[in-house]
Each structure stands twice: as structure tokens, then as C-alpha cells.
Amino acid sequence: MPILPRRFKRLQDVLNSRMGNLTVLLEKVDKPHNLSAIIRTCDAIGIVEAHTICSSKKGLTFNSTAQGSQKWVGLTNHTSINDAIKELKNRGFKLFGTTLESNSSNYLDCDFTGPTAFVLGAEKWGLSNEAKNAMDSNIYIPMQGMVQSLNVSVAAATLLFEALRQRKVAGLVPKSGEGISPHLYRKLIFEWAYPEVAIWCQNEGREYPNLSLQGEILEDLPRSLKLKC
Ligand code: SAM
Question: Rounded to the nearest whole angstrom, what is the distance from the C-alpha of residue 151 to the centroid of ligand 1?
Fold first, then answer.
């Protein structure tokens, strides 16, 4: 069954405003509730891919807080914080560590319109010294209550919405898919529209078929696969 044109249009609309140059790096933020809430915010903001360093043996797990947003936001788990930092820096991201230390800057005084990665730490420990020392800048969200810090998912949402606000003001929020490469756009729209066929293509080691403007697959596929669509 081909995808309904209305559904395909919705997928395109969402992908058209995705931003490849905004992300989060989560250092050992393993609690399913926190991880789920952050990925849901990433989807709401228009993030293509989030990054994690997972310390849990069970791996990364989501709960209902995610509301399925993990389907729409890619997740790359790195083996160490150093590897993650190196990769993001090589890709041109400016890394903003989040700590309440005295050398941090108020996030409202920072510019998040360029390639930006917010680096957030776990509930109990915060960011490791390794991470803090490798940041381009350390930032904090001012607090005026009795409790010293925010929940990590609330801190992530505060920073991501500030980045989105700044980009809106600067007219930098993509409207027609220009926030990601044409290759990635083609890959993601296919995977979003036809997840089962995408997995089949990956297993077969073949390219994804082309889609028509209405989202129909322009190739004859095995009958058993067509029935799954
Ligand atoms: N005891 C930890 C510490 O000293 O960092 C507190 C960790 S806090 C509960 C969990 C994470 O949320 C932090 O590592 C940071 O990423 C983020 N966070 C919480 N409150 C923040 C704030 N006011 N400014 C910036 N980041 C904050």
C-alpha cells in the first residue's frame, strides 16, 4: 500500500525544518524518563540526531514519555566522551558544556545560531571533568530557588528552545529541507515513509528506491514486502 499523500506531506513538512547543525550530547543520561523527555524535545525543536555516552549495561531505553519521538530523531551512541567530543568538533560543532561552575557563562549571553552541541550530564554527577575541560564554552541557566540545579531534561529543553528562538530571530530555521544534505533528506524521507522496506533494502545491501512526488515507491518490490507496507 503506498503511503497516503497527506501523511507523506506531513513527513516532508517536518523534515523540511530539521536542523543538522543543532544537537545534544548526553553523558551518561541513562534514566529512561530523562532520555525520553530529551529526545521528545529534540523532535519538537527539529533535531536530526542526538548523541549519547551510555553507562548502563542494558543500553539506552525509552519509556512512554518519549511518545514515539525516538522514531524521528537519530541516536548515535559513542564509546567514550572523548570520541564523541572529537567527532562533533571535527564536524564543526561548537560544544557548550552545562555546569554551574563559576567560570560558566549565562546561556542568555551566548550565541547558538552556528553549529551548536549542548553537552549535558547525569542527574547525580553532572558532567565529568574530562568533558568540562574539552568544551569550547561552559554555560549555565540562572537559578533563584532553593534547589541548585534543574532536572537534565528541563535544562535541555530550556537551552534548545533558546537556540530555536535565536535562529527564528535570525531567519535561520530551515523551511525547505536546506538544514540537512540532499542525501540525508532522501534517506530519511524514505525511512520515515517506509521503515519496513528501508530495513529490507539495508539487509539486501541495496539503495532505497526513488519516490514519486506523492511518495509512491517507483520500483517493483517483492510481493511479500509490498504487503507489509
Ligand atoms: N550535581 C550535579 C552537578 O553538579 O552538575 C547536578 C546535575 S543536574 C541535576 C543534571 C544536568 O542537568 C547537569 O549536568 C546539566 O547538564 C543540567 N543542568 C541542570 N541544571 C542546570 C543549570 N541551571 N544550568 C545548566 N545546566 C543545568
Answer: 7
97 Cβ below 6 A of ligand 1:
no
Dist CA 214 CA 6 (whole Å): 9
Interval between CA 202 and ligand 1 midpoint (Å): 39
Atom of ligand 1 nearest to the CA of 143: 23
Predicted pLDDT at 145? 96
CATH code of domain 19-169? 3.40.1280.10
Residues 6+ apart with CB under 8 A from 72: 14, 43, 192
Decide whether any atom of ligand 1 lies within 6 Å of the 113 Cβ: no
Domain ranges of the chain: 1-18+176-229, 19-169
The mean pLDDT of 82-102, rounded to a whole number, is 97
Q: Which residue, 8, 67, 23, is CA-closest to 189? A: 8
Number of the ligand 1 atom closest to the C-alpha atom of 122 = 10
- Does 123 sit in the ligand 1 pocket, CB within 6 Å? yes
The verdict on the CB of residue 120 being under 6 Å from ligand 1 is yes
Q: Cβ(139)–Cβ(27) under 8 Å?
A: no
User: Which residue carries 522514531 as its cell?
Assistant: 71
Mean pLDDT of the chain: 94
Least-confidence region, from 10-24, 28-42, 44-58, 88-102: 44-58
Checking if the pLDDT of 229 tops 70, the result is no
